[in-house]
Amino acid sequence: MLVVSAEIWPGGDESRAWLVGEIIASNESALSPVSSYAVSISQALAPAIGIEGWERELTVQDHHRRDGVWALVAAIVEQALNPRSSDDCPTDQEGSVNGDG
Hints:
By secondary structure, the protein is mainly beta. Helices cover about 15% and strands about 40% of the residues. The chain has a five-stranded antiparallel β-sheet with strand order 1-2-3-4-5, with helices on one face.
């Protein structure tokens, strides 16, 4: 399982850190060289700076593991922000479908 957490550290102060996003990706292909991943990705709500919160579930298929972790993260983010099918349709934190999916 891959977990990627994004935090903001106001003024560089780790003690004031807050989570702004997270990816949890689970390999569904028994660690084969070309794998598929079940993914949960979220962005935290931050109304003070106008950021909407959202959560999405998606599948990344046919990822070549030799391409490395950042290629996988890029594929996850690309698919989350630009869904290609109703199976990967964005949802808001309440779970309703957004109009862009």
